[in-house]
Structures are given as C-alpha cells and as structure tokens.
Amino acid sequence: MGKRINRQSVLTLVGVLLVYAIVQGSIFMDILPPFVALTLIQVCIFIILATSLNLINGITGQFSIGHAGFMAIGAYVAAIVVVKFHGPLLLALIAGAAAAAVAGFLIGLPTLRLKGDYLAIATLGFGEIVRIVFLNTSYVGGASGFSVPKTITWTWAFWLTVLSIIIIRNFIKSTHGRACISIRENEIAADVMGINTTKYKIMAFTIGAFFAGLAGGIYANYLYIIQPLTFSFLKSFDILVMVVLGGLGSLTGSVLGAVVMTVVSAALSGWPEWRLVITAVLLIVMMIFRPKGLLGTKEFSLSFLGKKGDKNASSKD
Amino acid sequence: MGSVTEQVLQQIVNGLSLGSIYALVALGYTMVYGIIKLINFAHGDVMMVGAYAGWFATTTLHMSFIPALLIAMTVSAILGVLIERIAYKPLRNATRIASLITAIGVSFFLEYGGMLVVSPQMRTYPPVFPDTIYNVGGIIIKYGDIVMIVTSIVLMVLLHGIVKYTKIGKAMRAVSFDTEAALLMGINVNNTISATFAIGSALAAAAGVLMGVYFNTINPLMGIIPGLKAFVAAVLGGIGIIPGAMVGGFFLGLTESFVSGLGASTWRDAVAFLILILVLIVKPSGLFGKNIREKV
C-alpha cells in the first residue's frame, strides 16, 4: 500500500516538475508565443477555480453556481491591496482569498440550509449581487474597470495551482473530506450517523470560496485590468462546465476539464459565438449520454500498473 | 405633497407594465417547475425567440400587433415542445443537477445559436402602436402601458380558464400533483408535459413581443436578465403556484420601478436578487407556498 502511494507520488512529482521546467525553459529561451503564455496562465487560474468548485459541487454535493462572485471578491480585494495600499503580491493574494472565504462563510451560513435548485439559484443571485456592487463602486473603477500592474509570472501561477490542488486533495482525503462525501451520498444518513452536516457544508463552501478568491487574485494581477463584466454568470457557467465535463467528484477530472475547456476556448477565441454554442451542445449531450462526466468520481492516476479504481469511487444517483 | 403622490402613482404605472412582463414569463417557469420540478433556465431565451418571431412578423411580413403576437406565440410553443422532447425528456429520471445543467446548456445554445442566426446586433422594433400619451392628472400613461397590462391580464385569465376548466388543464394539475398516480389513471403524461411547455413558452413569447414593442429594441441576449428576474418572481410567489407567479411578477415590477424612482436604477438588479435570497432564506416555499416536510 505504502509503496504504491510512494511510486504514484514520485511519478506525479516528476510530471509536475517536468511541466514546470518545460514551460519555464521556453519562457527563459523566449520561444513561447505570448498567446500560449496567456493560455497557460489561464489554464492555471481555471484549474484552481474548477477544483475549488468541485469541492463544493462534486465532493460535498451542494450545487453552487455563483463561483464567479467569489472570484470577483478575490480579484478586487487583491487589486485594492496592490494598487491602493502598495502591498506585496503574496499579501494581496492572501487578502483576496481570505476576503472571498469570509464572503463564502457569510453567504453559506444562511443559504446552505437550502437544497438543490434553491441553493443553485441563491448562489447565482449572490454572484450577480457581487458583480453589481463592484459595478457601482467608483473606488474600484465601476464599469470601466480597475487597472492592476502585471506581476504574476508563470512560476507564481503554476506553484500556487499545485499548492491549491494539494491542499484540496488532502482535505478530501481527510476525515473532514470523508464527512463531505457522506453528505453528498446521503445527507440525512450522514446526519443520522452523527456528522454535523451544516458545519461540513459551510467548511467546504468556505474553502471553495477561498481558492476561488485566490484564482481571482492571480487573474487580477495578470490581466492588467479587471472589469465587473468578467465575473458575470457566464464565468460561473464556464467553471461549472469544466467541473461537469471532468466529472463531479473527481479532482483530476476538474484539472482535465479546465485544461480541455481553456485550450478549446483559446483555439476558438476568434469565433466566440461558436465557442459557446459548441460548449452548450457538448454539455447537453454529455448530460444525456454520460451525466457523470469524463472521469465520473474516479481519479486519474499515473500508476496504471497498480490496482485500478479509487476507494471513494461510488455511483451517485 | 401632490408631486410625491404623482411620483408614486407614476411608478405604480411603470411597475405594473414591467411587472406584467415578469408575470407572463414567471408563469412559464412556475408551470414547468410544478410539473417536472425543473428550473427551465432556457425560458428567458424562449421569450427572446418569441420576440424575434414577432419582430420578423411585423417587419418582413408587415403584420399588425395581434397576428404578430399569435405567430410569435406559436413559434415559441413549438420551440418549447422541441426543447422538452430533445433535451429534457431523456433526463426525466436523472438527477436534478443533471437536468439543471442541461437547462443552462439549452439556454446558452439559444443565446449564442441565436447570435449566429440573427447576428448579435440590436434590432429595432417597428412602432406597432401610436405614440399616444395620456396624461391623467400629471401621471403619464403610454399607449404601450395599457396594451401591456391588458394583454397580460387577458392571457392570464385565459390561462386560468385553461388550467381550471379544460381537460388538459385538469391533466396538468393531476400530473403536477402526482405524476405516477396520474399515469395510472390513464393520463398521457408525456403529452401533458408537452402541453405545459407549449403554453408556458407561448406566454413567454407574448412577454417577448410586448417587451420588444415597449422598449423598442431586441437582441439575442435580451432574455437573460428578464428570465432570471421572472424566476425570482416565480420563487417569490411560491414556485409551482400559478397565482403566486402573477403576484410575484407584479410585486417585482413595482419594487424595481420604485428603486429606479428613488434614483438607484443601477442597483435595480441587485435588489431583485437580494429579494430572492431573502425569500429563499426566510420562506423558501414563497409567499403562497405551503411548507412541505421532506420524508426520509
């Protein structure tokens, strides 16, 4: 058992280092086209967003579609720290993430009593409210946007993404994570077994919001300008598609979904309508023929030679 | 003092016109939710398609208001049935989340597919009505206001008649009350669900045409915000309850026009969503809803 995990960890570590080294090397040698560099950072941002949304939607089974709202809070708070208070980047990112986590806690406390559709619609409303608040705040530029210097490099984005995935993965594998999975499988049964379902739902929601805020901070400090329109329902939908495509409940699925969707979007960026039509059709067809997503709740691993399957894998009706 | 009263009455007139649109769209949401427990996110976009059908009928075919309205309603009714048959029917026994995601997918498909077909640019609705403005004691009532309120009231009365006194209406109520029992009683559930989608979509199309006529412009994304707000209205009145949707629609319309009247029109949408969250937290079953305990 221990040996298998060891080999898998080593393989994963080698893979991660390899990806980092290849990209960093090509940046260093100046052979990476700027468009590709932009796409790579966006992939990182969306991986954080998708894995954190998966923690809420896939692992804990609480249907949230307001993730862009938390991203917006993280982005604006990080931008304010950098631009208005001239704080260091790391502090700005942490402040943004923490602010989003606080917002997640505050909004989660009352709304997580709601189930299914109602929770979805409440989180959607929350996301829109956040956007409208920033739209109407002249301190952060209102509709015209808020300029932020570009300080995020590939190194920052990549290692923050890796760190986020590790933290979320360890959370899922912990006692708390198992409690969250039990809520997804059957909330009433989990309650009866003595799990404080409210506590764990809020915990997952807050952690999810924290990382969405972190992704927002990275976004703000990379793209020169942030506008309220960026954080509309469309963004939440994009993240949701990634999570659903990869498989609700599978972290590696979310990573895969984020990579595929971001690359496809980048490739189709010249035809925005087609991009969305294709995404929509993909989503409908996926829901009809493979509602579990590409990986379902399974995790993709590099150790094909080991035993297949995941101890947490279980079907969800 | 007099001017304050005038202001209030003026906002009531504006609110009722706006509210009649929300109410018409909310009816479709509520009927569909009542019968298959699905938030039909694409409903606002069905309204958009109706608005375009009406625009096409009035500009290219030079029709007057009533025939254009009927054409738009027919087109949307067919579209609604098609959406149900193609996208929602295979998922009737799937998880709620799967159907909700599909509905969002259909919504985006209509919006951006619509953009491909009719181009993203705004279209101007031809002036179907005279620009007559009635000044009743300082309150300005546009001809359009009257048409909107009257049309929606006529349609609501018609809907009430259908649901209450016809065979299909009785079938709809039965399916919404207990689908399996209705099936056992020999009701054709599939046709009943299709009829519900057809009626709901037709009402949305009427709202779309009225909106086009009232605000003069339409575009492929026009359905998103009114759609969401109509959903708020449906939740406000208690989703699945037909009179609730009407009251919710008018309530939301009035609230919005008062918020605008107070000079905070950029906050209008935020207020609508805030109401939604508050209603969901305080009384998730809505103003007219009954609390139903979930059985294990």
Automatic annotation (TrEMBL), chain A:
Principal location listed in the UniProt entry: membrane
Record's keyword annotation contains Coiled coil: no
A GO CC annotation given for this chain: plasma membrane
GO terms, molecular function: branched-chain amino acid transmembrane transporter activity
Localization: Cell membrane
Alphabetized InterPro entries for the sequence: ABC_transp_permease, LivM-like
Membrane topology recorded in Swiss-Prot or TrEMBL: Multi-pass membrane protein
Spans traversing the lipid bilayer: 35-56, 63-83, 89-109, 116-134, 154-172, 202-227, 239-264, 276-295
Keywords: Cell membrane, Membrane, Transmembrane, Transmembrane helix
Source species, domain of life: Bacteria
Record's protein name: Branched-chain amino acid transport system permease protein
Pfam families tied to this protein: BPD_transp_2
UniProtKB/TrEMBL annotation, chain B:
GO BP term (any one): D-alanine transmembrane transport
Gene Ontology cellular component terms for the protein in this record: plasma membrane
Stretches that traverse the bilayer: 12-36, 56-82, 94-113, 133-159, 195-218, 230-251
Keyword set, alphabetical order: Amino-acid transport, Cell inner membrane, Cell membrane, Membrane, Transmembrane, Transmembrane helix, Transport
Cell location: Cell membrane
Top-rank taxon, per record: Bacteria
Chief subcellular location: membrane
Membrane topology per record: Multi-pass membrane protein
GO molecular function: L-isoleucine transmembrane transporter activity; L-leucine transmembrane transporter activity; L-phenylalanine transmembrane transporter activity; L-valine transmembrane transporter activity
Matches recorded under InterPro entries: ABC_transp_permease, BCAA_transport_permease
Family: Belongs to the binding-protein-dependent transport system permease family. LivHM subfamily.
PANTHER family: BRANCHED-CHAIN AMINO ACID TRANSPORT SYSTEM PERMEASE PROTEIN LIVH, HIGH-AFFINITY BRANCHED-CHAIN AMINO ACID TRANSPORT SYSTEM PERMEASE PROTEIN LIVH
Protein name (Swiss-Prot/TrEMBL): Branched-chain amino acid transport system permease protein
Organism of provenance: Desulfosporosinus hippei DSM 8344
Phylogenetic placement of the source organism: Bacteria, Bacillati, Bacillota, Clostridia, Eubacteriales
